[in-house]
Design a protein that fits this description.
This protein is 71% helix and 0% strand. The protein is flat. By secondary structure, the chain is mostly helical. It has 4 helices and no strands.
């Protein structure tokens, strides 16, 4: 019995010493690396969340692929829809190309008509410029082109005489001046 009492009293002392040792080592570890451990745990949590969402989407894609491979009707319908969409787009493109060709034909016809009119006006002895204004005159009745005498514009500014931008003369707000000399050149 005495041995049992000694073992019972000795055992709590060993447990107390072990707990004390554990407390000291864990306490010193947390004191030295506590913030690193906290930030590491937060980082692991964020990475785990990101990876779990990616894994879910990857699994979902694999299930969708497997389901599509199993159901050939869905694949056939999808291919038919894609073919119909391509055909519709091609028809729209062809319609646009036809409109563009028609527009180019009209422009060519207009140019050809203008050349014919120019040739006819030159055969009659008229100038081409007078003929170019003819469609406007047909819409707006007024004095004929032959009765209007072109006037020279006198409102023009005279050109600068003897202006040299490198001479520094001639007024103007912009003039070149050499930079400052000194050690503040940035070297």
């Amino acid at each position: 019995m005495e041995e049992d009492e000694e073992s019972l009293t000795a055992r709590p002392a060993l447990e107390t010493e072990g707990l004390r040792f554990l407390h000291v080592t864990v306490g010193s570890l947390l004191a030295a690396y506590g913030w690193y451990i906290v930030f590491g745990c937060i980082l692991l949590y964020v990475v785990f969340q990101k990876l779990s969402t990616r894994l879910r989407t990857l699994r979902q894609r694999q299930l969708d692929r497997a389901a599509a491979a199993v159901e050939p009707d869905v694949v056939v319908k999808r291919q038919e829809a894609v073919a119909a969409a391509r055909l519709k787009m091609q028809e729209e493109l062809n319609a646009q190309a036809e409109k563009h060709k028609e527009k180019l034909r009209q422009l060519e016809e207009e140019k050809r008509r203008q050349k014919i009119e120019m040739w006819d006006s030159m055969q009659e002895g008229k100038s081409y410029k007078g003929n170019a204004k003819k469609p406007q005159e047909e819409n707006n009745p007024g004095p004929s082109a032959s009765s209007v005498i072109p006037k020279r514009k006198t409102d023009r500014k005279p050109l600068r005489g003897g202006y040299n931008p490198l001479s520094g003369e001639g007024g103007g707000t912009c003039s070149w001046r050499p930079g400052r000399r000194g050690p503040s050149a940035g070297g």
